[in-house]
């Protein structure tokens, strides 16, 4: 069985400051890893994903996440946040063998203050 | 390109009443998912369709929940009778195929309140 833990339920940060949203997972098999973002009154959107290859993956709006197999983590970072980044961020894992199911974390609400 | 469409966006009912949610996936997407998102939690899969076949309904409470995807396009999720604990956001998502790496596209959800 796999599980996902997002260590912070809320992260308040000032505009232009760096931010890290933490995600740890557990699984007995290899997994694929995802970050989704949910803006107010909108559906979840895929932000970035790790499938294989380089452990550092980037999104088009300046976020990046690094897959760390030894620490079973996939933390999301951005060096300088904007007000428009205010949203809820969900980490998710999908195992890559024997049928699949995507398991989501509980979410981290990022609140960017002016 | 239109996204995943869900209706209604909000629904308030009294317990023991029936309720139905409708989802229209992105055109051409073969795989459709229904998730339930409780307050303060991430989405949890209820059922996954590949075309018109339900290939994973292990988390669907079959005593009161039912779903269908006739003709492999639109889908309806029904609860009868609804209970207080069913209050949640019900999300529909679709993907082009059923591969693990196929991106899921989510609709805005239906927020159900059971009084």
Describe this entry's structure for a reader.
- Chain A is mainly beta.
- Chain A has strands spanning 3-6, 10-14, 19-21, 23-26, 31-38, 45-50, 56-58, 64-68, 73-78, 87-95, 102-104, 108-113.
- In chain A, the strands form 3 sheets. In chain A, strands 2, 5, 6, 10, 11 and 12 form a 6-stranded mixed sheet that branches.
- The mean pLDDT of chain A is 91.
- Chain B is an all-beta fold.
- Chain B has strands at 5-7, 10-13, 19-24, 31-37, 44-50, 53-56, 65-68, 75-79, 88-95, 105-106, 110-114.
- In chain B, the strands form 2 sheets. In chain B, strands 2, 4, 5, 6, 9, 10 and 11 form a 7-stranded mixed sheet that branches. In chain B, strands 1-3-8-7 form a 4-stranded antiparallel sheet, with no helix packed on it.
- In chain B, strand 5 (44-50) and strand 6 (53-56) form a beta hairpin.
- At the A-B interface, strand 6, strand 10 and strand 11 of A face strand 10 of B.
Distance between the termini of chain A: 41 Å
- Contiguous low-pLDDT stretches of chain A (5 residues minimum) are none
Q: Tell how many strands the DSSP assignment of chain B holds.
A: 11
Strand content of chain B: over 45%
Biggest sheet overview of chain B: 7 strands, mixed
Our Rg estimate of chain A from Cα atoms comes to 14 Å
Report helical residue fraction of chain A.
Answer: under 10%
Mean pLDDT rating of chain A: 91
Write the layout of secondary structure elements.
The complex is a heterodimer of chains A (114) and B (115).
Chain A: E1 3-6, E2 10-14, E3 19-21, E4 23-26, E5 31-38, E6 45-50, E7 56-58, E8 64-68, E9 73-78, E10 87-95, E11 102-104, E12 108-113
Chain B: E1 5-7, E2 10-13, E3 19-24, E4 31-37, E5 44-50, E6 53-56, E7 65-68, E8 75-79, E9 88-95, E10 105-106, E11 110-114
Parallel strand pairs in B: 2-11
Antiparallel strand pairs in B: 1-3, 3-8, 4-5, 4-9, 5-6, 7-8, 9-10, 9-11
